[in-house]
Amino acid sequence: MKKLLLVAVSALALASCKKEPTLADKLEGTWLVNDITAAGTVNIPTIGLTPIVASDKTIAATSLFTMVQEPNSVNYAIDAELEVVAGALTIPFPWQQSGTGTWLAKSGNGVAPDSVIITATDGTITRYEVLSILETAIRLRTTTDITTPAEGTLNLEFSFAKQQ
Questions:
Q1: What are the residues whose beta carbons fall under 8 Å from the beta carbon of 65, sequence distance 6 or more?
Q2: What are the tens digits of pLDDT across the range 37-73?
């Protein structure tokens, strides 16, 4: 009886020492892009300084981000059509983006927002702020500069659903 009690207590102690998943552990996997929004102000040559709001009209089921820790790699492809509202205009805007590279999850330790930093194979670095993270869903935000044909800055937000 004493041996059984000792085994039970040991098993309970080991179970309670289970490692809490890191931010990278929570982000690792394949994620389907299921929502895209953008907002900002741009200078359109024929219109002038204009607020822009965009949302996804369609997102292809092949729009995936795959993040692996060992070896550290990211592979992503987005194929979507956005609906851009600029002043009185509504403009359909096809948007494709794809690439490979590496990624780093950076914890804000409760002082700053958590973030994901993606370095593409061409050296381009994009930082995403983690807005929310659940076991099966995440929402990230990044800021990007627009240079052609309009100039300005947009805040882009993406939602993802974990793929099994």
A1: 30, 31, 33, 74, 75, 76, 160
A2: 999 988 877 778 888 899 999 999 999 999 999 999 9
Torsion-angle region of 101 (φ positive above 0: left; ψ -120 to 50: alpha; else: beta): left
Residues forming a β-bridge with 106? 115
User: Taking Cα atoms as reference points, which of 46, 56, 44 lies closest to residue 152?
Assistant: 44
Burial call 42-58: b when 16+ CB within 10 Å, e when fewer: bebeeeeebebebebee
Segments in the chain forming alpha helices (H): 2-16, 23-27
DSSP state of 22: P
For residue 108, the tally of other CB atoms under 10 A from its CB is 12
- Rounded to two decimals, the pTM is 0.83
Angle at 17 between CA 105 and CA 66, to 5 degrees: 25
Taking the domains of the chain in order of start, what are their residue ranges? Answer: 21-162
Domain 21-162 classification at class level: mainly beta
